[in-house]
Protein backbone atom coordinates (compact mmCIF):
# COMPACT_ATOMS: atom_id res chain seq x y z
CA UNK A 1 0.00 0.00 0.00
CA UNK A 2 1.37 3.40 -1.00
CA UNK A 3 1.22 6.17 1.50
CA UNK A 4 -0.07 9.53 0.33
CA UNK A 5 2.55 12.25 -0.11
CA UNK A 6 1.78 15.76 0.99
CA UNK A 7 2.50 18.54 -1.55
CA UNK A 8 5.74 19.70 0.13
CA UNK A 9 6.95 16.11 0.26
CA UNK A 10 6.11 15.58 -3.41
CA UNK A 11 7.99 18.74 -4.41
CA UNK A 12 11.00 17.65 -2.39
CA UNK A 13 11.06 14.27 -4.07
CA UNK A 14 10.76 15.84 -7.55
CA UNK A 15 13.50 18.32 -6.75
CA UNK A 16 16.06 15.62 -6.00
CA UNK A 17 16.84 14.79 -9.67
CA UNK A 18 17.07 18.51 -10.47
CA UNK A 19 19.57 19.08 -7.66
CA UNK A 20 21.58 16.09 -8.85
CA UNK A 21 21.64 17.47 -12.40
CA UNK A 22 22.78 20.89 -11.19
CA UNK A 23 25.50 19.35 -9.08
CA UNK A 24 26.70 17.28 -12.03
CA UNK A 25 26.71 20.34 -14.28
CA UNK A 26 28.69 22.33 -11.73
CA UNK A 27 31.36 19.63 -11.53
CA UNK A 28 31.54 18.68 -15.21
CA UNK A 29 34.45 20.15 -17.22
CA UNK A 30 33.32 22.61 -19.89
CA UNK A 31 34.84 23.46 -23.32
CA UNK A 32 36.11 26.88 -22.20
CA UNK A 33 39.35 28.51 -21.13
CA UNK A 34 39.63 31.26 -18.55
CA UNK A 35 42.12 33.91 -19.63
CA UNK A 36 43.78 36.81 -17.84
CA UNK A 37 46.31 39.56 -18.72
CA UNK A 38 49.69 38.01 -19.53
CA UNK A 39 53.24 39.25 -19.78
CA UNK A 40 54.37 42.10 -21.99
CA UNK A 41 57.83 42.44 -23.52
CA UNK A 42 59.70 45.43 -24.94
CA UNK A 43 60.84 44.37 -28.42
CA UNK A 44 63.38 47.22 -28.38
CA UNK A 45 65.01 45.78 -25.26
CA UNK A 46 66.28 42.45 -24.02
CA UNK A 47 64.75 39.13 -23.13
CA UNK A 48 66.68 36.83 -20.82
CA UNK A 49 69.79 38.96 -21.25
CA UNK A 50 69.75 38.90 -25.06
CA UNK A 51 68.46 41.59 -27.45
CA UNK A 52 65.03 40.78 -28.82
CA UNK A 53 66.02 42.30 -32.18
CA UNK A 54 69.50 41.86 -33.65
CA UNK A 55 70.26 43.36 -37.06
CA UNK A 56 73.31 42.80 -39.30
CA UNK A 57 74.08 44.28 -42.69
CA UNK A 58 72.68 47.76 -42.07
CA UNK A 59 73.39 50.59 -39.60
CA UNK A 60 71.09 50.79 -36.59
CA UNK A 61 70.14 53.75 -34.42
CA UNK A 62 69.61 54.25 -30.70
CA UNK A 63 65.98 54.18 -29.65
CA UNK A 64 64.11 55.67 -26.72
CA UNK A 65 60.87 54.59 -25.15
CA UNK A 66 59.47 51.09 -25.46
CA UNK A 67 57.45 49.01 -27.89
CA UNK A 68 55.74 46.36 -25.79
CA UNK A 69 54.06 43.32 -27.32
CA UNK A 70 51.24 41.96 -25.19
CA UNK A 71 49.90 38.51 -24.35
CA UNK A 72 47.17 36.73 -22.45
CA UNK A 73 47.51 33.71 -20.16
CA UNK A 74 44.84 31.03 -20.39
CA UNK A 75 44.03 27.80 -18.59
CA UNK A 76 45.45 24.82 -20.44
CA UNK A 77 43.42 22.70 -22.86
CA UNK A 78 43.39 19.83 -20.38
CA UNK A 79 42.50 21.98 -17.37
CA UNK A 80 39.19 21.34 -15.66
CA UNK A 81 37.19 24.52 -16.23
CA UNK A 82 33.85 24.19 -14.46
CA UNK A 83 30.60 26.14 -14.25
CA UNK A 84 31.79 28.13 -11.24
CA UNK A 85 34.95 29.20 -13.10
CA UNK A 86 32.90 30.31 -16.09
CA UNK A 87 30.42 32.31 -13.99
CA UNK A 88 33.25 33.91 -12.03
CA UNK A 89 35.07 34.83 -15.23
CA UNK A 90 32.00 36.55 -16.64
CA UNK A 91 31.79 38.88 -13.63
CA UNK A 92 35.54 39.51 -13.22
CA UNK A 93 36.99 42.27 -15.43
CA UNK A 94 40.49 40.84 -14.93
CA UNK A 95 39.49 37.54 -16.51
CA UNK A 96 37.62 36.45 -19.61
CA UNK A 97 35.87 33.24 -20.56
CA UNK A 98 36.74 32.16 -24.09
CA UNK A 99 35.81 29.06 -26.13
CA UNK A 100 38.69 26.62 -25.78
CA UNK A 101 38.83 26.15 -29.56
CA UNK A 102 39.43 29.89 -29.96
CA UNK A 103 42.42 29.75 -27.62
CA UNK A 104 43.77 26.37 -28.72
CA UNK A 105 42.71 25.83 -32.35
CA UNK A 106 45.23 23.05 -32.82
CA UNK A 107 43.62 20.56 -30.42
CA UNK A 108 43.99 19.26 -26.87
CA UNK A 109 47.48 17.74 -26.88
CA UNK A 110 49.70 20.11 -24.88
CA UNK A 111 52.90 19.18 -26.72
CA UNK A 112 51.26 19.64 -30.12
CA UNK A 113 49.83 22.99 -29.05
CA UNK A 114 53.21 24.23 -27.86
CA UNK A 115 54.80 23.14 -31.14
CA UNK A 116 52.02 24.82 -33.12
CA UNK A 117 52.41 28.09 -31.19
CA UNK A 118 56.20 28.04 -31.66
CA UNK A 119 55.75 27.56 -35.41
CA UNK A 120 53.24 30.41 -35.48
CA UNK A 121 55.74 32.65 -33.68
CA UNK A 122 58.58 31.76 -36.06
CA UNK A 123 56.40 32.43 -39.09
CA UNK A 124 55.25 35.70 -37.54
CA UNK A 125 58.86 36.80 -36.96
CA UNK A 126 59.87 36.02 -40.54
CA UNK A 127 56.82 37.84 -41.88
CA UNK A 128 57.44 40.82 -39.58
CA UNK A 129 61.03 41.16 -40.80
CA UNK A 130 59.94 40.98 -44.44
CA UNK A 131 57.23 43.61 -43.92
CA UNK A 132 59.58 45.95 -42.07
CA UNK A 133 62.37 45.73 -44.65
CA UNK A 134 59.85 46.24 -47.44
CA UNK A 135 58.55 49.36 -45.67
CA UNK A 136 62.14 50.69 -45.56
CA UNK A 137 62.90 49.63 -49.14
CA UNK A 138 65.76 47.43 -47.94
CA UNK A 139 66.77 44.18 -49.62
CA UNK A 140 66.28 41.15 -47.32
CA UNK A 141 69.27 39.56 -49.05
CA UNK A 142 71.50 42.30 -47.62
CA UNK A 143 70.01 42.74 -44.16
CA UNK A 144 69.85 39.93 -41.62
CA UNK A 145 67.25 40.29 -38.85
CA UNK A 146 67.21 37.90 -35.89
CA UNK A 147 64.28 37.96 -33.46
CA UNK A 148 64.40 36.19 -30.09
CA UNK A 149 61.61 36.08 -27.55
CA UNK A 150 61.31 33.14 -25.17
CA UNK A 151 58.14 31.67 -23.67
CA UNK A 152 55.77 33.39 -26.10
CA UNK A 153 53.88 31.71 -28.92
CA UNK A 154 51.45 32.63 -31.65
CA UNK A 155 51.40 35.31 -34.36
CA UNK A 156 49.99 38.30 -32.47
CA UNK A 157 53.34 40.08 -31.94
CA UNK A 158 53.90 40.55 -35.69
CA UNK A 159 53.00 44.25 -35.80
CA UNK A 160 55.21 45.12 -32.82
CA UNK A 161 58.16 43.16 -34.22
CA UNK A 162 57.89 45.06 -37.50
CA UNK A 163 57.72 48.41 -35.70
CA UNK A 164 60.73 47.49 -33.57
CA UNK A 165 62.81 46.66 -36.64
CA UNK A 166 61.79 49.92 -38.31
CA UNK A 167 62.58 51.92 -35.17
CA UNK A 168 66.09 50.48 -35.05
CA UNK A 169 66.82 50.96 -38.75
CA UNK A 170 65.10 54.22 -39.65
CA UNK A 171 66.24 57.69 -38.74
CA UNK A 172 64.10 59.30 -36.08
CA UNK A 173 62.35 57.77 -33.12
CA UNK A 174 58.97 56.08 -33.40
CA UNK A 175 57.98 56.16 -29.73
CA UNK A 176 59.12 59.68 -28.84
CA UNK A 177 60.19 58.27 -25.48
CA UNK A 178 56.73 56.88 -24.69
CA UNK A 179 55.82 53.36 -23.64
CA UNK A 180 53.79 52.14 -26.60
CA UNK A 181 52.11 48.74 -26.52
CA UNK A 182 49.95 46.90 -28.98
CA UNK A 183 48.94 43.73 -30.72
CA UNK A 184 48.15 42.53 -34.22
CA UNK A 185 49.26 40.05 -36.82
CA UNK A 186 51.18 41.24 -39.87
CA UNK A 187 51.38 40.05 -43.45
CA UNK A 188 54.40 40.37 -45.73
CA UNK A 189 52.48 43.14 -47.48
CA UNK A 190 52.10 45.04 -44.22
CA UNK A 191 48.43 44.41 -43.44
CA UNK A 192 47.49 44.26 -39.75
CA UNK A 193 45.06 41.55 -38.64
CA UNK A 194 42.92 40.94 -35.52
CA UNK A 195 44.09 38.64 -32.76
CA UNK A 196 41.51 38.29 -29.95
CA UNK A 197 41.86 38.86 -26.21
CA UNK A 198 42.33 42.61 -26.71
CA UNK A 199 40.60 43.80 -23.49
CA UNK A 200 42.97 41.66 -21.43
CA UNK A 201 45.97 42.85 -23.43
CA UNK A 202 45.10 46.51 -22.81
CA UNK A 203 45.07 45.75 -19.08
CA UNK A 204 48.48 44.10 -19.32
CA UNK A 205 49.81 47.08 -21.28
CA UNK A 206 48.60 49.67 -18.78
CA UNK A 207 49.88 47.57 -15.87
CA UNK A 208 53.35 47.68 -17.42
CA UNK A 209 53.38 51.43 -17.99
CA UNK A 210 52.01 51.90 -21.51
CA UNK A 211 50.08 55.07 -22.33
CA UNK A 212 49.44 54.23 -26.00
CA UNK A 213 47.99 51.02 -27.43
CA UNK A 214 47.99 50.07 -31.11
CA UNK A 215 44.94 47.93 -31.86
CA UNK A 216 43.74 46.31 -35.09
CA UNK A 217 40.91 48.57 -36.26
CA UNK A 218 38.51 45.64 -36.45
CA UNK A 219 38.86 45.19 -32.68
CA UNK A 220 38.32 48.81 -31.64
CA UNK A 221 34.97 48.12 -29.97
CA UNK A 222 36.42 45.20 -27.99
CA UNK A 223 39.31 47.36 -26.81
CA UNK A 224 37.01 50.22 -25.79
CA UNK A 225 34.73 47.97 -23.75
CA UNK A 226 37.06 47.76 -20.74
CA UNK A 227 39.75 50.28 -21.61
CA UNK A 228 42.00 51.07 -18.62
CA UNK A 229 42.19 54.72 -17.60
CA UNK A 230 45.22 56.50 -19.02
CA UNK A 231 45.60 54.30 -22.11
CA UNK A 232 45.08 55.86 -25.54
CA UNK A 233 43.87 53.64 -28.37
CA UNK A 234 45.21 54.05 -31.89
CA UNK A 235 43.49 51.84 -34.50
CA UNK A 236 45.63 50.54 -37.34
CA UNK A 237 45.04 48.53 -40.50
CA UNK A 238 48.51 48.60 -42.05
CA UNK A 239 52.13 48.85 -41.00
CA UNK A 240 52.51 52.10 -42.96
CA UNK A 241 49.50 53.51 -41.11
CA UNK A 242 50.93 52.50 -37.73
CA UNK A 243 54.24 54.23 -38.50
CA UNK A 244 52.43 57.37 -39.70
CA UNK A 245 50.27 57.44 -36.56
CA UNK A 246 53.27 57.17 -34.25
CA UNK A 247 55.11 59.85 -36.24
CA UNK A 248 52.11 62.17 -35.89
CA UNK A 249 51.80 61.42 -32.19
CA UNK A 250 55.48 62.13 -31.58
CA UNK A 251 55.72 65.28 -33.67
CA UNK A 252 52.30 66.72 -32.90
CA UNK A 253 51.80 67.19 -36.65
CA UNK A 254 49.21 65.32 -38.65
CA UNK A 255 46.22 63.28 -37.63
CA UNK A 256 46.38 60.50 -35.04
CA UNK A 257 43.54 58.00 -35.68
CA UNK A 258 41.09 57.21 -32.90
CA UNK A 259 38.63 54.39 -32.35
Largest sheet: 6 strands, mixed
Instruction: Give the name of the CATH architecture.
Output: 2-Layer Sandwich
How do the strands of the widest beta sheet line up side by side?
Answer: 6-1-5-8-11-12
CATH topology: Ribosomal Protein S5, domain 2
Radius of gyration: 23 Å
How confident is the prediction overall: mean pLDDT? Answer: 83
Integer tally of domains: 1
Number of helices: 8
Structural class: alpha/beta
Q: Tell me the series of helices and strands, N- to C-terminal.
A: HEEEEEHEHHEHEEEHEHEH
CA-based shape: globular
Quick one: CATH class? Alpha Beta
Proportion of helical residues: 25-40%
Uncertain segments of ≥5 residues (pLDDT<50)?
1-28
Could you tell me the strand content as a percent range?
A: 15-25%
Termini separation: 74 Å
Extended strand count: 12
Amino acid sequence: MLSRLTRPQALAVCALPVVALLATAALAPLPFSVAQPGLTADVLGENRGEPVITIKGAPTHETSGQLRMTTIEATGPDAGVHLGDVIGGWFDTDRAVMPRDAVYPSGDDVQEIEQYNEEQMRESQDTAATAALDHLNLDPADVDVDLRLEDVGGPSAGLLFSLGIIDKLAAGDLTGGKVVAGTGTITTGGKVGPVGGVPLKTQAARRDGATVFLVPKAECSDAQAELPKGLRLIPVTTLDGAVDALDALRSGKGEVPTC
